Amino acid sequence: MAIPVRNLQAIKGSNRQIGEALEDIQTYLTNMGQNLALDPSGKPATPPPINSVKVATADGLHQVSITDNNPIYRPIQYFAEYSPKPDFGNSTVVPMGPSRNATVPLGNKALYWRAYSQYTNGGPASTPVVHGNGVKATLVSQGKAGLQYDGPPIQTSSGAGINTNPAGGEGAGKFPYSQTTNGLPPKLS
């Protein structure tokens, strides 16, 4: 999306050099926005939902594999979440970075899984997709063959990034900064 420059043609008509300089700035900002997956208008970009997530288990390990064949930008980040409940009321976020695969050592637990993506530089997360038929989460369980360990009990989720909601589904959060007492962004040092 090109950044609009008001009255560009009129400016070029009255002063060609200033018009060309504005066109250069327009091109540079447009390229930067595409490389960083930022909408120059300030509207946060939301990636499309991933195609699917599959989870396989063995010996206390849960292997997560995401398929995402959508047109996306390079600063994409993937998140998986697991929960003992199908409504993901107490989900734990597993940040996967740009990788679409992760191995999570959780022990021999029966869990529900879902996954989604979010651009690094902000914006809402895509709609979560569950392991299973894509509509209703399917429980991923494992037998007691091979290495047998149950791992620690699942704790109450603390969220991820600025998102403190234990229901998850927001990646690093919906907004660019966490709530402050004065409503202003936190100060950067």
Please describe what this structure looks like.
The strands form 2 sheets. The chain has a 4-stranded antiparallel β-sheet with strand order 4-3-6-7, with no helix packed on it. Strands 1-2-5 form a 3-stranded antiparallel β-sheet, with no helix packed on it. The chain starts with 7 loop residues before the first helix and ends in a 59-residue tail after the last strand. The chain has helices at residues 8-14, 16-36, and strands at residues 52-58, 61-67, 76-83, 92-97, 101-105, 112-119, 129-130. The protein is α+β, with helices and mostly antiparallel strands and 189 residues long. 23% of the residues are buried. It contains 2 helices and 7 strands. It folds into 2 domains: 1-43, no CATH class; 44-175, Immunoglobulins (Immunoglobulin-like).
Strand content bin: 15-25%
Assign the CATH class of the largest domain.
Mainly Beta
Give the class from helix and strand content and strand pairing.
Answer: alpha+beta
Rounded radius of gyration (Å): 22 Å
Helix content: 10-25%
Distance between the termini: 32 Å
Number of structurally distinct domains: 2
What is the name of the CATH architecture of the largest domain? Sandwich
Largest sheet, order of strands side by side?
4-3-6-7
User: Tell me about the biggest sheet?
Assistant: 4 strands, antiparallel
CATH homology superfamily name of the largest domain: Immunoglobulins
Please, how many helices?
Answer: 2
The total strand number stands at: 7
**What name does the CATH topology of the largest domain carry?**
Immunoglobulin-like
What is the averaged pLDDT score?
A: 80
